[in-house]
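ingest -> validate -> predict -> emit
validate: passed (alphabet ok, no gaps, 105 aa)
predict: started
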Amino acid sequence: MIAVYGTSAHEPAELGQLIAERLGTRFTKRESDYRGIYLVARLGEARIEIQPNAIPGDDDKSDLYADEHPGTPVLVLVSGPDQDGALSTGLAAIDRLAILEIRCT
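emit:
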């Protein structure tokens, strides 16, 4: 499963705290030339990433990671199995965090 959630109500660090508290996981900060600064955590076999939708571009202008959601400044990307439904239930309980896309792999 690959799921994309989004919010305009929370900053990445704040959202990381909310998710960590609900799911009992810990996020670490990562930096990438392609994606900028983002947060990553594991919950079982699932990987959770929190990142800004605006990512650094080659021309010093930001590009959108998910250009189909231009009004969504913060994204949560989830990949891997949600074995007991705790992950999706925990994310659904966060106020103003919306599911944008789900793909089964």
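Residues 30 and 84 are 28 Å apart (CA to CA).
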